[in-house]
Specification:
Elements: H1 2-35, E1 45-56, E2 60-71, H2 74-93, E3 102-117, E4 124-141, H3 147-157, E5 161-168, H4 171-197, E6 202-212, E7 226-227, E8 245-259
């Protein structure tokens, strides 16, 4: 019995030593893995924003106008509005506007109420007095010289709302100009980088990244809404002039640099 106890004790000691040795042998490997880290980047860079701007003449005229009519019934309001709008469409077509240049931008029909206070109860009551129909069309045309004639003809035909008049670039012209300005912006960024690096005795040796901005055009500045209802029509043509618009874009370029 005593001999068996000694053998059992020896086995426990061997197991303890084995576990201890195994634990010790793992520790150096763990430390070695923590010490293996990638070398930090030694790239030298300069980040520059380049800009390009161009003053261009717009080639599209945009006009939003229409007819707003109120009658006692929805049917009468719709009929009166449709009659006037047909005259308006015919009038602007006479100055060269085609169907493809005309689109409906807004059409509404809604009830009109009058509010009054009941003398007995003191409560406010709404009474239906009619219906209002508003039909606004949008004309986009390259015939800039016809803009005054379009507006005057439409007003003579019955238009009593002119919501906005502004100028813009066609998608084709805008796309072409965007490409031209983008190249100029990149060259501008390169020129700025070279000027900044010259006193430091460094030069551009490559490009690390390029970030493009959105093409920026001036926000259309519409005329204030003009109501012609009840206003005497003038025999003189409406004077409207287009002006050059500044269009710009920018690009950020990160250049790799090295010493001369």
């Amino acid at each position: 019995m005593k001999h068996s106890k000694q053998i059992f004790t020896a086995m426990i000691a061997v197991l303890v030593v084995s576990v201890t040795v195994g634990a010790i042998s793992v520790t150096p490997n763990a430390v070695a893995q923590e010490e293996v880290t990638p070398f930090p980047s030694r790239e030298k860079v300069i980040s520059v924003t380049g800009n390009a701007i161009s003053s261009v003449k717009p080639n599209l005229a945009n006009i939003s106008f229409g007819v707003e009519i109120q009658e006692k019934t929805a049917k009468d309001a719709l009929a009166s509005n449709s009659e006037l709008m047909n005259k308006v469409i015919a009038a602007i077509k006479q100055v060269g506007i085609t169907d493809s240049e005309i689109s409906t931008s807004q059409f509404n029909i809604y009830p009109v109420y009058d509010s009054y206070q009941d003398e007995k109860t003191g409560r406010y009551t709404q009474e239906l007095i009619g219906y209002r129909v508003s039909n606004i069309i949008h004309v986009e045309t390259s015939k800039l010289n016809s803009l005054a004639a379009i507006i005057d003809g439409a007003v003579e035909a019955g238009v009593n709302r002119v919501d906005s008049v502004y100028f813009s670039l066609s998608p084709e012209s805008a796309s072409k100009l965007k490409d031209e300005l983008l190249a100029e912006a990149v060259l501008n960024a390169k020129s700025k980088a070279e000027l900044a690096l010259a006193p430091l005795n460094y030069k551009i040796i490559g490009v690390k990244a390029v970030s493009l901005s959105e093409f920026s055009m001036p926000y259309p500045m519409p005329m204030y809404e003009m109501a012609y209802d009840g206003i005497a029509k003038s025999s003189a043509p409406t004077p409207i002039f287009s002006s050059d618009q500044d269009v710009n874009t920018s690009v950020n370029v990160v250049f790799l640099i090295g010493s001369n």
